[in-house]
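Entry:
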Amino acid sequence: MNNSIESFRPKFLNDLIRVGAAFDGGYVINERSIRSSEYLFCFGVNDDWSFEADFLNRKPSLRVHCFDYSVSKQVFLSKLLDALKAIVSGRFLVLLLSLNVRGVRQRLSILKYWTMLLVRFSLFFRKENVHFCSKGISNERSDVFVTLDDVFHMIPLEELPENSVFIKMDIEQSEFRVLPDLSKFQGYVNGMAIEFHDLDILWPSFVEILDKLKANFEITHIHGNNYGGLIPNSRTPKVLEITFLKRGLIQEGYPAREDVIYPIPELDRPNNRFERDLPLIFEDDHRTPALISKT
């Protein structure tokens, strides 16, 4: 199967900025999306909401709605209590008495991690204009999932301005279930940052979804997540982070630059900071992979 990303080459615009963490958890999006947004819908939070916090810092009047069934204040508190039990256990006393510095530091580090995570979660999600729902997003409603229809109807649609919503989506394959339902609400959406997973097995679905999205959205940035590696026998990453911008918000007739190399050195960072970033190779790019990866 041809896993070429040639037809998904981004249209480079001059207002790209990095929002969120320097490495995993941060995304490159268009600044005009922030200006247009009154709402930020985030599907998938895990243990990193730096994107949400940075977006809100840039647009203080923003209303943020986050969804993730795998985490909550109670989940983090439970992890903290488990780490605390490990500290007061007999096994920890043995580590102390045996002067096992590495083991002691490891358990103290785990306790510190869950303590800081609980504190940061509590501080961010108690803000008046930030809402957290401990449910995931899918195409069918259940005890642990809500749908796009549920999310958008949290706000009376007659009060929801056109192009007022930005969507961040990192939901481990569920994007393929959710995105077909977006067509009903795309008038409200100005842009999206979506992480597409497991493209080695879901490539046909990926191409079909992107072809439909491209009718109303322009791809303005693309980045390979180096945690996933490459699709076998190809030069395309298994996981791609793609930024979309509503075509109606683009006044530029042509890309600001034609010679962009991805990853973009001044914007992109590897998700795994201990490994090199993945160069993106477009079939019409005649430069060799070796040359591009060294740039």
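Confidence is low (pLDDT under 50) at residues 286-295.
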